[in-house]
Design brief:
The complex is a heterodimer of chains A (182) and B (306). Chain A is α/β, with parallel strands linked by helices. Chain A contains 4 helices and 8 strands, in the order βαβαββαβββαβ. Chain A has one domain: Rossmann fold. The chains are: A alpha/beta (182), B alpha/beta (306).
Chain lengths: 182, 306
Amino acid sequence: MDIKAKIIDEEGFNRTLTRLAHEILEKNKGSKNLVLIGMRTRGEFIAERIMQKIKEIDKSEPSYGVLDVTLYRDDFRVRLKQPEISVTNITFDVNDRDVILIDDVLYTGRTVRAALDALMDLGRPNTIQLCVLVDRGHRELPIRADFVGKNIPTSINEEVRVRIKETDGEDGVFLVNAPSKI
Amino acid sequence: MSLSNRHLLGLNGVPKEDIQLILDTATTFREVLERPIKKVPTLQGKTIVNLFYEDSTRTRISFELAQKRLSADTINFSTSTSSVKKGETFKDTVRNIEAMKVDMIVVRHKSAGVPQYLTRISKANIINAGDGLHEHPTQGLLDMYSIKERLGKLEGLKVCIVGDIAHSRVALSNIFGLKSMGAVVSVCGPATMIPLEIASLGVKIFTNIDEALAKNDVLNVLRIQLERNAGTRIPSLREYHKYFGITSERIEKFNKEIVILHPGPINRGVELSSEVADGPYQVILDQVTNGVAVRMAVLYLLGTMH
């Protein structure tokens, strides 16, 4: 990993998640009808952390699920590598619920588009709101986030890497040079 | 991760990693099948032909559902309603279908080797849905998936295939697949139905069903196929049932957990008693449900390969 800058450190990471949890609760007037859905793979752990925060703040436990959007992707024909597929785990009904869709980085918006389609196949939520740890710009679709941890303007040649303890052993957000395409 | 071959012709020689990948991917589709909308857009724009030169209910419906649930466009071809009746050769039929731009062909044929031949005359991905007495790989895969679903593993399990081994493509696919996954495979049936060469595949032979029940964790019970002249190798169906039929009394004698599979359609009162066919040991309908998920996995992995 060719690191250019560390943008969020461990304490910052934690503070950002705390703020996001507060914002979600504020906008939805509590957690009564809330459903948190993390997008595989890192969104899953961010959603779990936000759920812990909501539990501490609101003394309530919103439903929590994990969404795998691989089957809904639009790049099967153009990618060189076959994407790895995993399982969606949403054991509750999403009908009429307020769904908070959670991911680590918002970039082109194509993954979110896939997630919206996937969610619609599971039911008809009351609302779907998007929460991301980092918004790095360069959208290719008309999609915006409702809750943003940090806006990081980037160039196309850069990449934002979110590292999280559960999979990477540390919490932090880094700006790295994109590996050159062969 | 991708499969190492762009066709699925059989399980003979398929590496363990490929089988594992298909079984893992099937779990994803098993979840899709539990949703209110059991359809994903993954194979949108792909065209798949089901080329069935031999009758089939389960396999054909299962493949068609799997294709529809992946949003592929499907065409069904059966010999009885086609120009095959007018004498068109197999090769011409396939060439014509391919000229209509298809991406995948699912084929069932009474002759062994037809899927292999198809790979030479067509550019499409070929999936074998049963060729003669050779292989039926998706059946083997769904059997393995169902065993794993019930018992949590394949490695080290003792699995016995019971019935007319000599005339079964299901038996061969099971033997190849299960052995790759580390299971201990055996066969059981009347001597007239066990080919002598089967031992060379590394399987043990039982000629007594009670011994097979005592020494195995799983029994995959095959159908007595009267359409393949099974009647010439056994004195009568009643006698077969008496010596090789699985009944509750037989199972309960051993007082242990056993899993019974059957690829369908069942001859009730022949290879299985009705009580067993509907009882707590069998996973027959799970096999059918899992069949759709496993076929979705195979179609997905081949259809999105570059």
